[in-house]
Amino acid sequence: MPVGHxxxxxxxxxxxxxxxxSALTAYLRCPKQWFLSYxxxxxxxxxxxxxxxxVLEDAVCDLMMMHPPKVESFEILExxxxxxxxxxxxxxxxxxxxxxxxxxxxxxxxxxDDVSLSSLQxxxxxxxxxFLEEVR
Length: 136
Description:
Structural class: mainly alpha
Number of helices: 5
Number of domains: 2
Helix content: 55-70%
């Protein structure tokens, strides 16, 4: 029977056994700040750009996971994909707004109200364009 320690609960149980690039950078800058942020979960105020990155990545991933109808050409596939963007942007905006409302410590400089639907659409469109350049 293998012997091991059960995972710790609470904020100290958040360690994943590896460091991300941002965690390593934070550690090299200030080990004490890294400990407070990554081990105890005491991070600074949240900015809308942090939430924006999460919801935009999810929107682009959702677009990539969709199953398009059978199409005859790459151009028709691209047109179909671009038609999905407004609905994905709406969902991202709603999700981001909900996430922002749940944040306890918000940055005083920015607010989710500064994020526009057209900006979300442009960014998702840009993500799709980058992807399509790779597969052409």
